[in-house]
Design brief:
Helix content is about 45%, strand content about 20%. It is an alpha+beta fold. It has one domain: 60s Ribosomal Protein L30, Chain: A. A five-stranded mixed beta sheet has the order 1-2-5-3-4. α3 links the parallel β3 and β4. It starts with a helix and ends in a 5-residue tail after the last strand.
Length: about 210
């Protein structure tokens, strides 16, 4: 009987110790989650601020379409049917477009209220094609986007890979299209998507 009492006392002490361990872990977990929730809230606010800031590209070159959350060049860059060749008459305008995007990303990167965030940018150049009888419209739309990227690069508009990722895409005759019928040819154009991406918060405190 005495041995049994010793056993139960030891078991009781063990369970009490485990209870306190679990209690401490619970408190630490709650504190950790509360801290992370505050970080997440701050990040969400900054993401909203970034999306608003990105919309400040010059209106003389860009039209922001809030319903699609994308930028459209406010000047129609028209291609010949079946061609990805950029007409030289658009060169001056497209250089200004590329510099505007590059300058905006640099400006946002240097703003103090964003400096502790690991902000990257995804710039998607989307080429489009019109619905016709051409059999390579998907490939053609990609080639149109690629021709713009190469044009920018040949004119010294090179985005820093550390801060900005460039994606070249072609939506062919699919995706969200604005024109149809007699205006179908106007779908032979570029679309620009600028997407901010936020990583871990950098704490500047020692």
């Amino acid at each position: 009987m005495k041995k049994d009492n010793i056993f139960w006392i030891s078991y009781s002490d063990l369970m009490t110790s485990l209870f306190f361990v679990m209690l401490v872990l619970f408190v630490v977990t709650i504190g950790y989650l509360k801290y992370n929730i505050e970080d997440i809230k701050e990040q969400l606010v900054k993401i909203q601020e970034l999306h608003i800031a990105v919309q400040k590209l010059p209106e003389e070159y860009f039209e922001y379409q809030p319903e699609y959350k994308r930028f459209k060049l406010n000047k129609q860059i028209q291609f010949q049917s079946g061609s990805s060749y950029i007409n030289p008459k658009y060169y001056k305008y497209l250089i200004k477009v590329g510099n505007s995007i590059s300058n905006l990303i640099t400006e946002l990167k240097n703003q103090q209220n964003f400096e502790k965030f690991d902000i990257k940018y995804l710039v998607v150049i989307e080429g489009m094609a019109s619905k016709d009888n051409y059999s390579r419209n998907y490939e053609l739309s990609y080639e149109r986007a690629l021709s713009l990227y190469r044009f920018w690069k040949s004119n010294g508009i090179i985005f820093n890979a550390i801060d900005c990722e460039i994606q070249i895409s072609g939506s062919g005759t699919e995706g969200i299209r604005e024109y149809s019928g007699k205006d179908e040819y106007k779908n032979q154009q570029f679309l620009i998507h600028i997407i901010p991406k936020m990583g871990k918060i950098h704490n500047n405190e020692e």
